[in-house]
Known about the structure:
Layout: E1 3-5, E2 11-14, E3 21-25, E4 30-38, E5 43-50, E6 53-58
Amino acid sequence: MKIKSTADGSTWFYCPICGRKLFKVIRHTQCRDFPAWCRGCKREILVNIDGQTIFAAASAQAGVS
Ligand SMILES: [Zn+2]
C-alpha cells in the first residue's frame, strides 16, 4: 500500500519499502520521475503520479548518497 487517506481526508504517499510517510498527495497532484528521498530507509524512490494512478519504484541509485 503506497497511498493512504487519513481521517481528515488528505492522502499521503508512503515509502513502498519501509512504509514511512513521505509526502502529501492532493486530488490533482501530478509528477513524473520525481525522486522522493526516504529518510527512513535512505533510498530514493522514483514516483510517478497522474491523477489516481501512482507508480513508484526504487531508484537505480538507491543507497547512493
Ligand atoms: Zn523508506
